[in-house]
Amino acid sequence: MPRRRRRRLSLGAQYTLFAAAVVVVALLADWPTLRENFAKQEVAEQLFPDIITVGLRNTAVYTAVGFGLGLAGGLVVALMRLSTAAPYRWLATAYIEVFRGLPLLLIFIFVAVGVPLAFPGTEIPGGAVGQAGLALGLAATAYIAETIRAGIEAVPRGQVEAARSLGMSQGRAMWTIILPQAFRIVIPPLTNQVVLLCKDSSLVLFLGITLEQRELTKFGRDLAGQKGNTTPIIVAGICYLIITIPLSLLARRLEARQRRGQR
Fold first, then answer.
1. ABC transmembrane type-1 domain spans which residues (predicted)?
2. CB 226 within 8 Å of CB 183
3. DSSP, res 1
4. For the stretch 12-21, what's the b/e string if a residue is b when 16 or more beta carbons lie within 10 angstroms of its beta carbon?
5. Alpha-carbon torsion 244, 247, 249, 252, what sign?
6. Residue 181 has pLDDT above 70, yes or no
7. Topology classification of domain 36-262
8. Confidence of residue 263 (pLDDT cuts 50, 70, 90)
9. 216 vs 207: CA distance, rounded Å
10. What is the pTM of this model?
């Protein structure tokens, strides 16, 4: 039998098995019970507009602040990681290894409990937004630093040599020649980092936030407890997808465009 025909038969068998599995699941599922517990229309309607104006808005704010702090910190740590001064490299490496190795939950607990204990009478500016942004930013800094470092190292060395031959200092060449090219390279992974921070913002609930400071997960969980129904959690999940799916599609398009530009 020709190889192409065998491949078609194999794919046909796989599609058939997948369709059969879907049919079996659809026939065995208790759809009325699922609809009552996970997709109750009257419960879902009661969530609006608060789930958008409170939950979704706060999630976007926490994500934006965390990413902003992470991007600024990541740039500094990446430059320290590439510094010719050994103490800077050691400090940057230690930071990256520690904060990439710690669970994000522990970082949130440290920000909520450790900072007030270590610095009595000190409050993080911005309240819950500042605390959430700091916790997310501390973690994001470690990952973004490695992303930016990889982008800088991906810039052809000839670019640096050409800049230096024109009389540019190392610092000026870095800011005007290398970093702009590096950021074009790392835009897709940075977009993916935003998606991760959006999901990680669900840990804000450990900061002891008020009703008006709730993000989507906390909002959905509170309403699910009040209504005795899990529909609010499903709606909260859909709201997360409203943010993450467009960002994921954008990241894929940027990666595809980058690959085309390299050919």
1. 56-251
2. no
3. -
4. eeeeeeeeee
5. negative
6. yes
7. MetI-like fold (1.10.3720)
8. low
9. 14
10. 0.86
